[in-house]
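User: Second chain of the day. Same drill as before.
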Amino acid sequence: MDVRIDKLLANMGYGTRKEVKALLKSGNVRVNGDPERSPKTHVDPDEDSVTVMGDEVEYREFIYLMMNKPGDLISATEDAHDTTVIDILQPEDHVFNPFPVGRLDKDTEGLLLITNDGQLAHKLTSPKKNIGKTYYAVIDGEVTEEDVTAFSKGVTLDDGYETKQGELVILESGAESEIELTITEGKFHQVKRMFEAVGKKVTYLKRIRMGTLELDSDLELGEYRELTDEELDYLFSSTDM
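Assistant: Same format as last time:
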């Protein structure tokens, strides 16, 4: 895979394209041991050795992150009014120009994947893949077995949309209930609207799982980490089905 050297260096955090051009002109960049000054030169990261001031450049095309999203950030790359999940990334991760996979409502917490791999993101959010998203929620109202049955058949939302079946598990039932709900769609405010359809209100919502990929319990709100090889293998295998 050939890539322009200025793009490679910019993607790896060595500065803007302008700053990278200056770096190249300084003679501090070498390709296979030879000084390289042209920003237009193409290199193969898998075959060519690229060094900056003697340090080897380890090229990565994609980045894959798991974030425990707080309830005060929006799932977007940029916004004129609110802080986004991308705004809180470290500079070394920001340079990859990543984006959130799907979206979580601003007040919803929990598992959010962030990547710059558009192909994987598309597959993960495609309804055809039927990848379940599991949420933990606190409900104002008593959740009953009748609700479990209704969700298993699909409910009618306020705009007339008939949802696909959802798997509702009651953790605690009472005037305030705790539940887990797994759905394979991602309509606007879907979990909240599904409970509204049965006369109840979601007061707290957190995504805890995508398929079998679970939110890392060690991640505090606003923290994130790179996915492990095993987690990546699962995501790629689940979207290739």
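The chain has a mean pLDDT of 93.

User: Great, on to the next one.
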